[in-house]
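User: Could you check the structure of this?
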Amino acid sequence: MGTVALKLGADGSLRAARDSALSSIFKFLLAASIVGTNILTLYNLSASRDLERNMVNIGSVYHSNPARMLEEVAGIREELRLARRHLLEIHSELDSIRMSYTNSQKDEALLNRIASVVRFADQGISPELRISVSAHRLPLGKHWLFGTTQLVPAVGHACANNLDALEFYMNYTVGELCPDDWHIAQRLMLRGCEPLPRRRCFARSPPKLVHPSHFPQSLWSSPADDSIRWTHYTCKSLDCLNKRKLNKTFEDCIDCFDLEGIERRRWVTVRDRHDFIIDQVLDLKNGTIRVGLDIGGGSGSFAARMAERNVTIITTTLNLNGPFNEFIALRGLLPLYITIGQRLPFFDNTLDLVHSMHVLSNWIPNESLEFLLYDIDRVLRTGGIFWLDRFFCTEEQLQSLYIPMIQTLGYRRLKWVIGSKSDKNGRENRHVYLSALLEKPVRS
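Assistant: Sure, the predicted structure tokens are below.
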């Protein structure tokens, strides 16, 4: 079965056609769920007959290892349970869609939701994608620690809404070089398809073998252009990236790759009262800051300054029109390639510090920001520091929305500075900065 394409008329002129399409989809989904239920019933009956016919064979095979038989029977029951649960989910989704349709809520979001359900149930996906995202039985049976008989790959639920791009991404030759499609992977991640399924092909390398600089000299040495793969970027060299600041067009992080410019002065010199010096922050905790996270850390300069002080910082970043991840790694630091919507991949109460500059601001939806703040709280240990570095928004937003949101965490304020954002964009939009050092309290 192919995908469902639905077009919307801006003036409502296609309402009749749309209603007809919705009605057809309802009938299809209802029929599919009924057929699925019948198939499960037949499967159960046939399985029972097969079990009776082959009882003698089963007895001879498992006579010496009855535990194996019990494990396999448990595995079959688990598969049936999951199949039944999937059918119940389809029925539930059908009821929800039918209610929305009855209430005449036939907008684009509803149509996209219907298309998502149809596509998620589509059995026509490519074999390689199916192998990658399917659960696979453990060869030694149920794992005594994991408590499961299967290994289930982690794949973001939004992948179901982007099957065309996902199919394109999974179209490759097994055992050969992967297509030059890292930008497709990043596009999927930004649409919520995260984590991506694994692939069975070899990632492409830079054109030449170039050894990185020795540590710690690598912290402030620009890597060679040949050590980076430049496909799908506007710039094809570090020199081009560093010249972006001369253009009047907007580019995010235009100074990030210039290690002799402003990057070299961040967190060790003060430009205004919103800047906190790293040594002063570390002194607040008497040497107990050892490991941390920098959310949206650009080219890794915050981590570099911390590395000079024997503090390990992992930097989350994306390659948004620049090789940020490669650049960080070539500096001898640890990049983490995840989006702002991904759950932080750390266990509870494990980090001494979480820092973010500019990234946590009013461009993030309120609900998403609130979930992210709670996730930051989850990974910070008791007494850990949340360093909010130049959070910007309007003054009204700060007072009515963001300060109450931050106060919900119940952190102690070690430093708290609010002031005007003085650049042209800040003046025009009446933006303000908030820089703060917040200490996580004891919770038990």
